[in-house]
Fold these 2 entries.
Entry 1:
Amino acid sequence: MQIQYKIAQLLKDSGYTLSAAESCTGGQISHLITMVSGSSEYFLGSVTSYAISVKENVLSVPGELIKEHGVVSTEVAAAMAEGVRALTGSTFSVATTGLAEGGDERFPEGTVCIGVSSKWGTETMIFHCDNGRTGNIRRFATAALGFLANHIIKHTRH
């Protein structure tokens, strides 16, 4: 089963909702979520925050956090997830920031920092792959959705 269908199953009748903040995935997470019929019942929306100014001004990521840790960091991914959850009022949120192409002094190409947030807390992870720009974006999105699904299961199943 594709991960977006698993998330639909987890959220559809629960009353829980979802939002996304995407940088390096450029809307791919939102695309996958909205490919599922009925996703409007639980998916509130997303912010594609490619520019630092959008991360700061729309998602309320502190500029000092970006300066201290870099835009590609678990700290910024967490802040993005928390920001979009606050903006939309969703139960759960997922965020990505990374390097689909071209590395930097800290991370190689194919690195994404993922954040998930809910009332149960915020968690982050770093994921690496090497599939070229398009392949990396696809893998980043599915890795983020897998991490989100695990967060939902951990905090909603007894």
Note: Residues 132-156 form the longest helix (25 residues).
Entry 2:
Amino acid sequence: MSSKRFKKLPEKTNELPLETVEKLLIVIKKNCTAKFDESIDLSFQINNKQKKSEVNIRTVVNLPGGTGKTVKVAVVCEDTKLSEAKSAGADIVGGDEFIEKIKDGEMNFEKLICTPAMMIKLSKLGKVLGPKGLMPNPKLGSVTDDLKKAVMDAKSGQAEIRNDKDGNIGVSIGKKSFSDEKLIKNFKAILETLEKEKSNNTIKGDLIRSAFITSTMGVSYKLKLGKSI
């Protein structure tokens, strides 16, 4: 049964024409009537069925306006890099003993970074870390010797862009409390990243079939991307 709050939201928004993010943010924020700071979310349907292969996108984007979330970051590294990881702002830092704790199910972190030298040991925990999306990946910048940059990126506003088996991508551009300027900067950063992925995957035609924007407890609207991606 729908709540009184939800019943007051606009209906049949899927029948409305496509509109720009600048105009829709005004509407979306008006619909943010929940008692918490709602997230502003994007949803893309990609053209992932190509003749010769299926498109799989997995990358990260550094959002210039941040995410509005506090991320708990852990680092697995050799002893000589422990102080570097700590000074970079990592919440949990360790080596072999920390790997054993992870093996035993101790995973009180949301992002895991690892040095290449320790990745050989950590890779054995694929069955533990993989299903939770926590396995470090060189492509995502989470397997690196530059721990300072990796930790700072994870803390300052890094979002993962990844499509599911049906070609759907969901990603947040921030919170209702963010200024429109911040949200638009994050939106453009995500589009730029998707453009690069289109080039890297040599996709024929458009990468994005449809795009929508909504808030955590709101309704979605069709989004005009401005140009072909």
Note: The first helix runs from residue 4 to 7.
